[in-house]
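Long-time lurker, finally posting.

We've been working with Hydrolase (HAD superfamily) (Mycoplasmopsis gallinarum) and I want a structural starting point before designing mutants. I don't trust myself to interpret raw outputs, so I'm hoping someone here can both generate the structure tokens and explain anything notable. Sequence follows.
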Amino acid sequence: MKKQYKAYFIDLDGTFLDLPYDEKQVSDFNVLVAQKINEKKPLIISTGRPNSPFVMDLAKKINAPYVIGQNGAVIVDQKNNLLRLRLIEDKIAQELKNFLEERGLYYTINGDEVIYGKSVHNFTFDRPWAQKFVKKTYAEANIQRDITRFLTFGLDIESIANLAKEIEIKFPMLRTHTVSKGYSLEITNKESTKGIGNEFICSLLNLKPQETLHLGDSGNDISVKENNFNFYAMANAPENIKKMADAVINNYENSGLGLFLNDLEDLELKI
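Top reply, 14 upvotes:
Generated this for you. Predicted structure of Hydrolase (HAD superfamily):
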């Protein structure tokens, strides 16, 4: 007998967004499945992305009641009304900026489509999202604003893992999550994780974490286990993530998430 869940929390990149190189980014089938589920129970976006126009338009399209953005640092309802905000302190943001720049790392701030580096030249990234981003120098980075998340990259997988440990020792008030198959590192306030964000929404819905299911593929998704959520990993997730998951399902490509949920919920939709 299939296990029944009262709500779903879904990651976007590498999970729901199965067409990353296409302008629309997500298949019609994934959208249809999400719409049908939201007719009878909540299916909520839980992502490292900000509550950008794209994310909010997607939430409206699938009728998701809430969006957990920036790994729980920013939580909004479908109308983009702010429900929860957890910032990186101004002083810490400046210290972290200096820390990353001293190591020659690339970074983005708050999910803005700008990559900061030593120089605007020689930016070579094969990730689809990076191709669209504006490139600027460190000196152009504005941190005189509310900061919820840094995303940094430019090292190999082992070095990113070591960087995560170094940051959490030097900055105990911050939290790190490896993403992009281990090649990037998200850095947020310590109170910002998908598990904490999901738990906040559960309190609004009067649900227990154990009654829900989180689906994703990255280090920021596995954090939900700390808050007693069920976690299923996509087959494209790194091996260390799959080992910690309660189950491993389809690859995200070709409507993999939609096909899994279609079967689990007995929707009988045709792709």
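Before you design anything, note these points.
The longest helix spans residues 157-170.
Residues 178 and 185 are 5 Å apart (CA to CA).
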